[in-house]
Each structure stands twice: as C-alpha cells, then as structure tokens.
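Morning!

This is the sequence you dropped in the shared folder:
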Amino acid sequence: MPIGNSPPPEISTLAMSLPRKIIHIDMDAFFASVEQRDCPELRGRPVIVGGDPRGRGVVAACSYEARAFGVHSAMACARAQRLCPGAVFLKPRMEQYQQVSRAIMALFARVTPLVEPLSVDEAFLDVTTNLQGEPSATRIAQGLRQTIREATGLTASAGVSCNKFLAKIASGHDKPDGLTVIPPEQALAFINTLPIGKFYGVGAVTEKKMLGLGIRTGGDLLRFSRQELVAQFGKSGLFFFDIARGQDHRPVESSRIRKSIGTETTFAEDVAGLDQVMALLAGLVQQLAEDLAHRQIGGRTLTLKLRYSDFTTITRSCTVPAGFFEAAEMQAQLPRLLAATEASRRKIRLLGLTVANLWPAHERRRPQGLQLPLPFPPPVPSGTVP
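The structure's back. Tokens below.
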C-alpha cells in the first residue's frame, strides 16, 4: 500500500520529474523457498542453504524461520548452527535455482522488454510503456506476483515507484510476500523518515560515520550540501546527495543484448577474512559457470568486483586467449585477482564476478599442448616467478 504523507512545505518540488514507472521484484528467501517447495516436509522449518557447518562453509540463503534466530546470508555456517541448532542444512542446487529463475524472467518478458536482472532472484522492470497496455504499474506488480505464485509456487515482494532507488527500497519494506508503492508525491516524505542504515549504499562503516555527523535519517542528510558530502565521503557523497532528494535517473538496462554475463551478491553484514571471501566466491563461480553453460557461451575476460564497507568499489580483471567457460578456469584466476585487492585487510559488503568479451562455446579453441620455442629459454632460478 502507499507509504508516507505529503512532502513538508519547505520542499515544494520533488527533484525527480521523469514520469517513469519502475517495478523492483525480489523473490522471498529464494534458494530456501525452492527447497521448501520441492521438499514439503521442510515447510515451516528453519532451512539454511550453504556449506557444511562442521567446516568453513558460509550461509548462501536461509528461510524466514531461520532468520528468526538471527541467521543471515554470508554468516559462517558453524555460527548459524549455534544460533539455530534445529536448522536443516542443504547444499545449494544452483541448476535448479537457475531453472526457476529463467521461468520467472520469462514471465517478466511478457510484460516489458525492459527487464534488468540483478541476480537470479531479483530484477527491475520499466513498465512506463508495456506490452499489456496497462497504465497502472501497481496492477502490473500485483499481477506478476500472482502469476509467479501460480507458475512456481513461490512468493515475491515488489516495490513500485518512479525510479530504481525508490523501487528497490520499497520492495524490501514489506517482506515477505508484500507490495509497497511509493508515489512520486510521497517519495520525499518517505525518504525523510527512512533510517540512514536502510539507504542503498550505506554500509556499517558509513552508517557509523553518518551517525557521528548527526545524520540519522534521510531528512538529516538533506541538511548537507553537495560539497560537504563530497568532503566527507568522496565520490559517494554525490550519490548520497542525489538519493536524499529522490534523484535517480539510471535507466533500466535490458540484458537482451549481452556484452557480459555476471553475478554478484550484497551481504547483510560485512565479510572479513580471505577464507570466507574465497568460500563465497566459489559459490558465485559455480553460479556463473552454470549460467555460461546454459547459454553455451564463454568469454575471454574475467572481472572480480569488490565493494568495501565504506562503499568504495573496485574491479580487477584478467584476459586469457583460451577464454573462461568452466568453473575451474575461473577459480584458478581468483587468487591472483584477490591478491591485487585489499580483501585481506578490509571488510567487504559486495562480491561479484563477470565474464566479458563473449564468444560461443562451439567456437572455443582448446589448447592442443604447448611447444617451447627454439632455442630453449634458460632455466628459471629456484624461488622466482617467470
């Protein structure tokens, strides 16, 4: 249902004026919900999808029953078991999740060609103009949630607003199985009361700094000028300045024409330690490899994306002539890519992997063996890297 009251009188005009209609749909506890659907005896029980709690595994997803005990994604499975001793631990079935995801994305494509998947379980849709000729984005969102339930047996939460930032915030406002609408005329009132920790892009470190500056809500953030926010937060200050005013002009970018294929995940709590990072990346590698295999495609360039706890985002890439088609090929490059980051010294809130410079799998040229050039190169001294 709609949120917020009329904007305060001192703010007479909403900064964003584009008459767009954006929907963000987010599946509820997707991996765990698929497991509960496929195994009815798990319904109503705490389910954790991830690694072995006896080892260094991490939680990839968990049901709402497990979340009630304080379990969340990216948590060590050993800790999750201590918090919820009765939880059922399951290994991820990425192929099954991908199959369900493709069915859901196909439902979106019946509504609009402007679909931007963010991961296997969420996407933006621009329904300003749509294939159904339906003028109400709210009715479209209601219909999609019902269609998803009927087609997959799963629930989804949806947010509707005039830009991507507001739609994404809205979809998380009434989970699970909720629908939240933020009309343009109510957007600033909603943002003004939104706790700063719930703003997209505000991690634990940034939240602590903002609280120290007296910024507790979006309304507090409005008191700071663009220059002041840049001085405090660097380039991120520009982002904070805009979203406090409801400004987000990013288009919904359809994946119909692919230049790259990737996956990423944002953690509920910042991740620290290379062991945990590598375990999480192993899951992303498997997910990306299965997506590439389904599309029968690969790529020559692999990019690792990290977002640190202060919202600084970096990428590290490598390109190989033989290309990346399988999980092992990507996994082999991760230590080198991670070594070029500060992952061992800084906390991380987002990890992502992308394969670019795409080419079809049937055109792949597998190496047939290497022949040393003549004359032979001199031997490499022990302990050095060629």
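Headline: Residues 185-256 form a domain with the DNA polymerase; domain 1 fold (CATH 1.10.150.20).

More detail when I'm at my desk.
O.
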